[in-house]
Amino acid sequence: MTEHTWYLLKALILGVVEGFTEFIPVSSTAHLLLIGEWIGFDSGDAKVFEVVIQFGSILAVVWIFRHRIWQLIWGTYRRERTEVAFARNLIIAFLPAAIIGALAIQYIKMLFHHPGIFVVTLILGGLIMLWVERKPQFAKFADSGSRSDGGTDKRRSTQALEEISWKQALAVGCAQCIAMVPGTSRSGATIIGGMLAGIERKTATEFSFFLAVPTMLGATVYDLYRHGSALSGEQTSAILIGFVAAFFSALVLVKALLLFIAKHTYRPFAWYRIALGIVVLIWLSLGG
After folding, report:
1. Rounded distance, CA 8 to CA 46, Å?
2. How many beta carbons lie within 10 A of that of residue 255, not counting itself?
3. Is the pLDDT score of 276 beyond 90?
4. Which of 160, 166, 244 is nearest to 204 (CA)?
5. 6, 138, 208, 240: most buried by Cβ count inside 10 Å?
6. Is there a contact between 132 and 138 (Cβ–Cβ < 8 Å)?
């Protein structure tokens, strides 16, 4: 196997990793950078590879929800009240990260070169997820309408995308800003942020999916605009392979996740984050 072929195979591996981790709250960026480090994949200082292939996963969401997205576009054009409100909420949730990202992207990317930050963000994020899932209104399966202790919760969570208020959308948008810190997880921050804002688990997950589309499209276009001319032919080939791999693996993951959260909480992912954070800590302690 030639060095070039091996490089492209690594890109394929990372594309699959991206697709399987983008929409679960375990931080796809942490997995891409850590696994990339372990297998010796050099994506360059600008980290364009990690950003661009994430949009492959986002396109999988566009495909899966294509009918709902078309309904949103057509309904907004026709000025249907519920669709206009949904579109408004996506814009409100998108703007905080767009503004902060544009102003601080250089400082944010500096954090990508410090693996130690993943120890903190992975473990702390896992602990926060466990805390949120223990709150009475979330200590139940999605759509079950009953608490784990057999009682009823007087606080009703927002059950549908169309019911989300602009204040809840803004809360999700602010939570997404936190996810700019590597290892935090964009999906994790927006889902948990939505749940804390009073949105039901499955609905918060779906809103996170839709919000990912403009967010990652913006990040991809911005990164390619700034660094695209500096990419080598080998890096471009790697991005294309990783992009396609991320798309197909995300198709599988998103459908599986929606089935999973219909009957389970996010606690398994929280424990996984904590375990991974400990593994990274041990690896760094051993001189990794």
Report:
1. 18
2. 12
3. yes
4. 160
5. 208
6. yes
Helix 116-133 to helix 186-196 angle (10° resolution) is 30
Mean residue pLDDT across the chain: 86
Contact predicate 56/65, CB 8 Å = no
Q: Decide: 25 and 273 in contact? Cβ < 8 Å.
A: yes
First to last CA, the chain: 26
Q: For residue 114, what pLDDT is reported?
A: 75
- Which carries the bigger pLDDT value, residue 108 or residue 44? 108
The DSSP bridge partners found for residue 158 are 199
> How many residues does the structure list for the chain?
288
The domain segmentation of the chain, as residue ranges, is: 3-285
Burial class, 207, CB count within 10 angstroms (exposed 0-12 / middle 13-18 / buried 19+):
buried
Q: Which residues contact 84 (CB under 8 A, 6 or more apart)?
A: 75, 76
In angstroms, the Cα distances linking 45 to 39, 91, 230, 282 are 17, 31, 11, 25
Q: How far apart are CA 128 and CA 148, in angstroms?
A: 19
What is the helix (H) or strand (E) element at residue 9, kind and residue range?
helix 3-21
Q: What is the DSSP string of 116-182?
A: HHHHHHHHHHHHHHHHHHTSTTTSS-TT--S-TTSS--SSPPB-SGGG--HHHHHHHHHHHHHTTST
Q: In the 8-state DSSP scheme, what is residue 113?
A: G
pLDDT digits (tens, 9 = 90+) for 77-131: 999 999 999 999 999 999 999 998 888 777 777 777 677 888 999 999 999 999 9
What pLDDT does 143 receive? 41
